[in-house]
Amino acid sequence: MHSSWVRGPVGLDAGPRLTRTGFRTVLVLVPSMTAGTRLLDLLPLVEVDHRVQAVLTVPHAGEVWHGVEEFARRTGALVVPWSQAVHHRWDLVLTASHRHIDQVHGPVLVLPHGAGSLGSLRRSRKARGSTRDTTGLDRDLLTFRGRLVPAALALSHELELTALRRTCPEAEPVAVVAGDLCLDRMTASLPFRDRYRAALGVAGDEELVTVSSTWGAESAFGRHPGLCHRILTEAGAGTRVAAVLHPMVHATHGSRQVHAWLDTARDRGLLVVPPEEGWRATMIASDRVVGDHGSTTSYAAAIGRPVHLAAFPDRTVRPGSIAAALARTAPRLDHDRPLLPQLHNRADPAVAGLITSRPGAAAGIFRATMYRLLELDEPSWPAPTAALPLPRPTTHPGESHGW
To answer: Which of 121-125, 129-133, 375-379 is the least confident region?
Structure first.
């Protein structure tokens, strides 16, 4: 972590080194790769404007997640130290996390970092020993010493606005039902399914089964670490298997260790999708998805992929959540029986309508919100919903596209 200040486009002495002047400054908070990847969907809506300068920073309070600084730098964006970021006033601050938002100066736009703003778990992983249920829209997350922090709070669905009126009514005036840009990009990319399959090395007559896991001991990978290898063993020729593991699995254990745990399966052709990008294209390319209560599984169901649950912590998932809705109809795997025959018991959970109430409209709503906060007129061209890039998986221990 850098302690010295970066000689960049901000600060009282910035003038002599600037090539472009008179721009608005946008600060992007990247406390984790999960939050960072969500914001990288949003950033292109404003950073292409010659009137805008975007800067990334990794917030911290003495500790950071492994690999986050490297991830931020690999984007090619200017990255300033947190100690510098908190001493400058920004024209817009973008964040997909509630952490540290009270410490930055400038109008803050908060958006969810997964499917929906309310979250799937009853209680936060960060609050050890918590005694009451929480959501992602609680007053203690959105206020600091009685002050409402967000200048704009992006919600994915009208139902979240109803919840907000109960959990933090003073935030309702700044709430914007923007929809879900992640799902919109997946939907817009569905026509490129064959390209994604080709990039993964999946032949036209092969079936792709993707194992999707969130993080934590109750996740699919936490409960069944040998799941990918078992499916590969049962499947034989004609079936390919991919693994999509939550970025926090890599951040907590390190990608080297994660790949080592998967080496036996990788020797048999397991496609390991890097944590920073590729999971959405892989879901589009998939024929079946085996998952859990994580957002990636819900997104797979939302684009019409048959989903089966390898693990699901009923006691810790919040009733009424998107994950709970998924679990009501998605078949659950019996790990005491052969897995492959069970994957042909198809059910199509209807969750897309729960993830967004503004399908296809998120890019336009988000751009309008950001330009309002920047106090700039919007560009004349429509806000684009960009197609997803090709996935770049690792297939054997000698390869590594992760951190």
So the answer is: 129-133
